[in-house]
Amino acid sequence: MKNKHRQHVNGMIALVAAAVLIVAGLIVWDRLERQQDEENEAKANAAHSVEMNADFYRDGVGYRLRRDVDTILLIGHDKNPEENIANFRDGGQADFLLLLVVDNQNETVSMLQIDRDTMTRVHTVGDTGRDAGGKEMQICLAHAYGSNLVKNDMNTVRAVSEFLGGERGIRIDHSVSMYMDGISRINHLLGGVEVTIPEDMTNLDADFVAGATITLTDEQAFDFCHARKSVGDGKNYSRMQRQKIFMESAAKTVQKRVRASGTFANTLVDSMMELTNMMDTSGREANKGWFINQLKKAATYNVRQPDILDGVRTTNPLTEYVECRVDPADVLDWVIGHLCY
Question: In sequence order, which ranges of the chain are alpha helices (DSSP H)?
Fold first, then answer.
């Protein structure tokens, strides 16, 4: 009788314990479900926030420009600084345009090379210096407009910003511009840049044999990056390919020199400030320390090969100038991939 009673009591305890476990499990499950629902709601709200405040849309999805990347536009122009700017359309042309994107979160440096012949809206000024509105033309011509080098550079920054981001533009933090012969001085600062010659250029220099890998002298660096009509097919796209080769090698050389010497970043920035016009986005002289810090950080980053937004190139029968028209979808893809979240 006692054994039966004990078995009955044990059975009741087991049932109570099972009930407690079931209730506890239901409580935990409910909490997990609520937690998951809250997380999903938070994600949905975040996505909705991006959608509502998106800078760009692609296939119905909204994207916002990141604030944790630094952008620098390199401008190589053909206006000799020793020449006076005679009027508001005499700032020369920007034969070289390269946007650097320093991504500190992912520790990468991306580069976008923009064809000088790219057709886009450029802000112009009249003979009196007044705003004459926007007009479609080659992006290189943006540098022509302005009463001084600072304004020429800022108009170029604006043209690139709006080419990539539409009327609202993208943020470009700093610009560095120089007369194209500054390439020789940069090459000198780096102790010579090593390149592989992409095509036969021996009519320009006997060392420029197709396939040869050489360390450029300062004069060769200028010819390699600047020559156009006297080389190969004489087209700007071929010159861009050489500029791309030079910049990729130069970037790697800078990394090596900065890693090898803690003071090289200071030396390089000091020299660059002497031979270039370095500004922030408002047109004020750039902060030297900012550039030094960027160089030191980028010395350990993954530097990617320069991208080129390839477009359709045609010759305008009226002006006989080459016009490069880039698909807006390609522009948007690049911006979303490198500047947005």
Answer: 2-52, 149-165, 182-189, 218-226, 236-260, 264-275, 288-298, 328-339
